[in-house]
Design goal:
Layout (H helix, E strand, L loop, with lengths): L2 H14 L12 H10 L5 H11 L6 H7 L1 H8 L5 H19 L7 H5 L6 H12 L8 H10 L7 H11 L5 H14 L26
Length: 211
């Protein structure tokens, strides 16, 4: 795909959703971090149902740590990987209290040192909480970028690097949300809704799906 097409794709996605927002519910940097950790291999809807009950009880590093792993487990056991996630939440809360005065750090190295926080989660927190021009590549972004030929790569790191190369810096804050939402509601994994797609004529996917 050439850069002229890429620019047109970004402009159309921007026109469709000028100011995209994350679909996880949160009111603080800590709540965003916990919701993102919980969202691994789980839908945002499922996470929001959990945090709706969890956050009124514990929504800071200190209150979460005081809640304890057994109580955390009771709140999150309806989602996948709940045992691992409960351990990660209690341990990252402890580290935030010990090393960062309970605050969420705003640098990649510190974030990725926290239990349960990988590159995608760190990118999302840096972008959404702190406004950094980072691009989080989840399964939707990975699929859309490869399927359309916008940014091809065999793994998420390659796709991320290509996105950082192809997307103008002023658009990097929002671009991964455009791709996430496009992949979540239009460019579906099994049967993409090409007949509704805003970028159908620009997409280089050869097996477009009609009604």
């Amino acid at each position: 795909m050439n850069n002229t097409k890429r620019k047109k794709i970004l402009m159309r996605l921007q026109e469709n959703i000028p100011k995209p927002i994350i679909e996880l519910n949160y009111t603080s940097h800590f709540e965003l971090l916990i919701a993102t950790v919980l969202s691994a291999q789980t839908t945002d809807i499922s996470v929001n149902k959990i945090t709706e009950k969890l956050y009124p009880v514990a929504n800071t590093a200190s209150s979460m740590f005081e809640l304890g792993i057994d109580k955390i487990t009771e709140y999150i056991r309806t989602i996948g990987l709940w045992k691992t996630k409960a351990n990660n939440i209690i341990n990252l809360s402890r580290i935030l209290l010990e090393d960062y005065n309970g605050n969420v750090p705003n640098n990649r190295e510190a974030l990725e040192s926290l239990p349960g926080v990988g590159r995608k989660t760190a990118n999302l927190v840096l972008n959404t909480a702190f406004g950094f021009p980072t691009i989080a590549v989840d399964r939707h972004v990975f699929r859309v970028c490869n399927r359309t030929n916008f940014a091809v790569g065999q793994n998420v790191k390659v796709v991320e690097n290509n996105l950082l190369k192809f997307v103008p810096k002023k658009l990097q804050v929002h671009c991964h949300y455009w791709f996430i939402l496009h992949g979540r509601y239009t460019c579906l994994a099994r049967r993409p809704k090409c007949f509704l797609c805003k970028i159908k004529d620009l997409c280089e996917f050869e097996k477009k799906v009609d009604l």
